[in-house]
Amino acid sequence: MRWLVTGAGGMLGADTVAELRGRGADVTGLTRDDLDITEPGAVRRAFADHGPDVIVNCAAYTAVDDAETDEARALKVNGEGPRVLARACAEHTARLVHVSTDYVFSGEARTTPYPEDHPTAPRTAYGRTKLAGERGVLEELPDAAAVVRTAWLYGAHGRNFVATMLDLETRRDTLDVVDDQRGQPTWSADVAELLVLVGTRLSRGEDGRGVFHATSSGEASWYEFAREIFLLAGADPDRVRPTSSDAFPRPAPRPAYSALGHDRWREMGLAAPRDWKSALKEALPHIRKESLS
Questions:
Q1: What is the per-residue burial (b if ≥16 Cβ within 10 Å, else e) of 235-273?
Q2: CA–CA gap between residue 82 and residue 228 (Å, rounded)
Q3: Of 83, 82, 73, 122, nearest to 102 (Cα)?
Q4: Any idea which UniProt keywords this protein has (predicted)?
């Protein structure tokens, strides 16, 4: 079985390629420079050159704030690109695993994680464009595609909250971190493993269609997340101080609550993703090592 990972230069794409190589899979990783998923001709050439049986689409426009004034470009990448991939997969009898986001929801829930079938209601341009991509994939490839939503990703590759906190811990006496946004800190390596699991099930004709949520279990605010990072790094967590979102105004509103439920995994007889604290404890040495290299 041949795998193709788009957006392989990003944090999640790089981890997905590494996960597949670690399993001895036949995998090709293509970066944004290697493949423009919005161009049908380029996608056709990728199929001709690599003959994938399963595509994992990690390519995306992820600049949440920039999308507020650049929605047309974000829609091209996040909305039209996945549909192009899905059409090509349909033509070649290939499977598609597409990565999406918690931003497709309103973020106005308070205490109950969003189930996979909860009505979508994006409040940002980024969320609207990602929802368009979900719909394109499921409309073009209803029997051979999965949409995997994730959130609050951190990892060893690229900029992310954990790497930023580790850096700031060495340069500032105290840090003010938002305490009125709650979600699920999620290690990208864990998500990569779940993407491969879903793709494998699809390729075998097993239950793997539709929508999945790939976030760590449990939940925290950014402030609680930062304190745990400091604690695991051997720093005093009391150096992290709580503040409100009003202290950091941004063009795109952030969800106040974006925890995602994991019912689909349980329905398939699989364990829900592990707790965010145990994942962070394992991830931290990898992130510190990468930041020093």
A1: beeeebeeeeeeeeeeebebbebbbbbbebbeeeeeeeb
A2: 36
A3: 122
A4: NADP, Oxidoreductase
| Distances, alpha carbon 278 to alpha carbons 61, 112, 164, 232, in Å | 29, 22, 20, 11
| Structure-block tokens of residue 151 | 């959130």
Which pLDDT does position 3 carry in this prediction?
98
**What pLDDT shows up at residue 292?**
55
The number of beta carbons lying within 10 Å of the beta carbon of residue 70 is 15
CA dihedral 287, 256, 146, 56 (to 10 degrees): -30
Residues facing 210 on adjacent strands: 146
Residue carrying structure tokens 């070649």: 92
Q: Which residues are catalytic?
A: 126
- CA dihedral (34, 35, 36, 42) in degrees, to 10, reads 120
Residue 89 in contact with residue 145, Cβ under 8 Å?
A: yes
What domains are there in the chain, each with its CATH number? 2-159+185-219+258-274 (3.40.50.720)
Decide: 147 and 210 in contact? Cβ < 8 Å: yes
* Mean pLDDT, contiguous 10-residue spans, the chain (293 residues): 97 98 98 98 98 98 97 98 98 98 92 95 98 98 97 94 96 97 98 98 93 98 98 98 95 95 94 96 91 59
- Cα separation, 251 vs 90, in Å, equals 38
CA–CA distance, 183 with 27 (Å, rounded to integer): 32
